[in-house]
């Protein structure tokens, strides 16, 4: 399969031009405003053909909002998105027709069975009648829904509704499928079934998947590229080479502070940090201090396991520690934690610092400077908060 170049950088340099693009989905400087907030700020991405791109971020980063914007459920304030010649701003109906979508809400059509619902959606996607039955049975089998296929959807459990929502999004292999936390609430076996189903469809069809998740394991298992989204901004994009299992890894060392003998928690943390730092000279330790334990993260896998275990055993005996755990972290995990602790390039405004807030007077608001003032919209549309109802 030929590799298609990412045109995100080209789009950034030619903001006012429409570029020929071989990518399936191109999002160009997307911005969504809510009063003084900008939940999505200047977001650009490219989704290649037959690729699974994961949008990874913590709660409140804007993952689900991005998918709702791309499905025309939420209006955009600025920017645009293009999908196979369709324009999200000018022709949202044509844009949405080329999408498959499984959102956070798992709504049930109670009077239909799972098999009937799959067949109806297949007919709406214009699948030939001869292939509707085979497609429905294949999806039911892949997602382990055969036993419940002839029961009303209202009787499904939450996990079964989640799997059915994924199956409905994959029916007909649309050009782009948007999945919002497709394995939330599933057991480990069911999660891997869903992952296998997504990977199979991407490999055997020309479908592309945009997967929004907060699960690092899910992003590593399914995606070929990972986009870090934090506070509505793209912080970093990792490609397949960065996600290689043979790449550099690190350690996550968690020490419980319960049962300390003769030392305060602060003194114990300092001594533990000195010991851990001596095992990784020249490396920066990421330290997370909570009430009952402390966690150290380091991007280095060159230390000897025997030395590490001996050092932790010595700390356990000397300080009376009750629990010490060591986990091997991947490149993606280390990058994710690193991006969370880095300050954003431009602060996200707070409602309390808005000049419209009654809690902050105009004089005090003037001292806030550019903190709450976002860049002016670049769009030339007269009403960026409303979609046109007809083709332009």
UniProtKB/TrEMBL annotation:
Residue spans of biased composition, Low complexity class: 380-392
Coiled coil: none
Classification via SMART domains: AAA
Residue ranges annotated for the ABC transporter domain, each copy included: 25-256
Region feature (Disordered): 370-392
Gene Ontology molecular-function annotations: ABC-type transporter activity; ATP binding; ATP hydrolysis activity; lipid transporter activity
KW Protein transport (keyword) present: no
A Pfam short name: ABC_tran
Top-rank taxon, per record: Eukaryota
Protein's UniProt name: ABC transporter domain-containing protein
Organism field: Amblyomma americanum
